[in-house]
Amino acid sequence: MKTSSSASPASSTTSTTAASSTSSAGTGARTEQAATLIGGARERIDALDDRIIGLVQERMAVSAAIQDARITSGGRRVHLSREMEILGRYREALGKPGTALAMTLLELGRGRI
What we know:
Elements: H1 2-23, H2 32-72, H3 80-94, H4 96-109
Helix pairs in contact: 3-4
Protein backbone atom coordinates (compact mmCIF):
# COMPACT_ATOMS: atom_id res chain seq x y z
CA MET A 1 0.00 0.00 0.00
CA LYS A 2 2.82 2.41 0.79
CA THR A 3 4.15 1.89 -2.71
CA SER A 4 0.87 2.89 -4.34
CA SER A 5 0.47 6.03 -2.21
CA SER A 6 4.05 7.14 -2.92
CA ALA A 7 3.59 6.36 -6.63
CA SER A 8 0.46 8.49 -6.76
CA PRO A 9 2.15 11.84 -5.92
CA ALA A 10 4.98 11.07 -8.34
CA SER A 11 2.61 10.33 -11.18
CA SER A 12 0.52 13.43 -10.40
CA THR A 13 3.69 15.56 -10.44
CA THR A 14 4.62 14.05 -13.79
CA SER A 15 1.11 14.75 -15.12
CA THR A 16 1.26 18.38 -13.93
CA THR A 17 4.70 18.87 -15.45
CA ALA A 18 3.56 17.31 -18.73
CA ALA A 19 0.48 19.55 -18.82
CA SER A 20 2.56 22.66 -18.12
CA SER A 21 5.15 21.83 -20.75
CA THR A 22 2.41 21.04 -23.27
CA SER A 23 0.65 24.37 -22.68
CA SER A 24 3.86 26.35 -23.07
CA ALA A 25 5.43 24.08 -25.69
CA GLY A 26 7.16 26.07 -28.36
CA THR A 27 6.99 29.41 -26.52
CA GLY A 28 9.72 28.96 -23.94
CA ALA A 29 7.32 30.35 -21.34
CA ARG A 30 7.20 28.98 -17.82
CA THR A 31 3.62 30.00 -17.06
CA GLU A 32 0.33 29.58 -18.87
CA GLN A 33 -0.23 33.34 -18.79
CA ALA A 34 3.11 34.03 -20.47
CA ALA A 35 2.49 31.26 -23.03
CA THR A 36 -0.87 32.82 -23.91
CA LEU A 37 0.66 36.28 -24.28
CA ILE A 38 3.52 34.95 -26.40
CA GLY A 39 1.16 32.94 -28.59
CA GLY A 40 -0.98 35.99 -29.31
CA ALA A 41 2.05 38.18 -29.95
CA ARG A 42 3.48 35.60 -32.35
CA GLU A 43 0.22 35.56 -34.29
CA ARG A 44 0.46 39.34 -34.60
CA ILE A 45 4.09 39.11 -35.72
CA ASP A 46 3.14 36.51 -38.35
CA ALA A 47 0.41 38.85 -39.65
CA LEU A 48 2.87 41.76 -39.72
CA ASP A 49 5.43 39.61 -41.54
CA ASP A 50 2.80 38.73 -44.16
CA ARG A 51 2.11 42.44 -44.68
CA ILE A 52 5.85 43.25 -44.83
CA ILE A 53 6.44 40.53 -47.43
CA GLY A 54 3.55 41.89 -49.51
CA LEU A 55 4.94 45.43 -49.27
CA VAL A 56 8.43 44.25 -50.23
CA GLN A 57 6.99 42.47 -53.26
CA GLU A 58 5.08 45.61 -54.19
CA ARG A 59 8.27 47.68 -53.76
CA MET A 60 10.13 45.26 -56.05
CA ALA A 61 7.49 45.68 -58.75
CA VAL A 62 7.60 49.48 -58.52
CA SER A 63 11.40 49.40 -58.62
CA ALA A 64 11.30 47.20 -61.74
CA ALA A 65 8.96 49.70 -63.44
CA ILE A 66 11.32 52.57 -62.58
CA GLN A 67 14.33 50.67 -63.89
CA ASP A 68 12.49 49.77 -67.08
CA ALA A 69 11.55 53.42 -67.69
CA ARG A 70 15.09 54.57 -66.93
CA ILE A 71 16.69 52.00 -69.26
CA THR A 72 14.13 52.63 -72.03
CA SER A 73 14.95 56.32 -71.90
CA GLY A 74 18.67 55.59 -72.26
CA GLY A 75 19.61 55.87 -68.59
CA ARG A 76 21.30 53.46 -66.25
CA ARG A 77 19.48 50.72 -64.41
CA VAL A 78 20.63 51.97 -60.97
CA HIS A 79 20.57 55.58 -59.76
CA LEU A 80 23.25 55.69 -57.05
CA SER A 81 22.36 59.08 -55.52
CA ARG A 82 18.79 57.87 -55.02
CA GLU A 83 20.06 54.70 -53.36
CA MET A 84 22.18 56.81 -51.01
CA GLU A 85 19.06 58.79 -50.03
CA ILE A 86 17.24 55.55 -49.23
CA LEU A 87 20.17 54.21 -47.20
CA GLY A 88 20.31 57.45 -45.21
CA ARG A 89 16.56 57.42 -44.53
CA TYR A 90 16.61 53.88 -43.20
CA ARG A 91 19.76 54.53 -41.14
CA GLU A 92 18.19 57.62 -39.54
CA ALA A 93 14.98 55.76 -38.71
CA LEU A 94 16.43 52.41 -37.59
CA GLY A 95 20.11 52.92 -36.85
CA LYS A 96 22.86 50.72 -38.24
CA PRO A 97 20.55 47.71 -38.84
CA GLY A 98 18.40 50.03 -40.96
CA THR A 99 21.28 50.39 -43.40
CA ALA A 100 21.47 46.60 -43.80
CA LEU A 101 17.71 46.41 -44.26
CA ALA A 102 17.80 49.15 -46.91
CA MET A 103 20.64 47.37 -48.73
CA THR A 104 18.60 44.18 -48.77
CA LEU A 105 15.59 46.01 -50.18
CA LEU A 106 17.72 47.70 -52.81
CA GLU A 107 19.27 44.38 -53.80
CA LEU A 108 15.84 42.77 -54.08
CA GLY A 109 14.75 45.58 -56.40
CA ARG A 110 17.73 45.38 -58.75
CA GLY A 111 17.83 43.39 -61.94
CA ARG A 112 14.29 42.08 -61.88
CA ILE A 113 13.37 43.36 -65.36
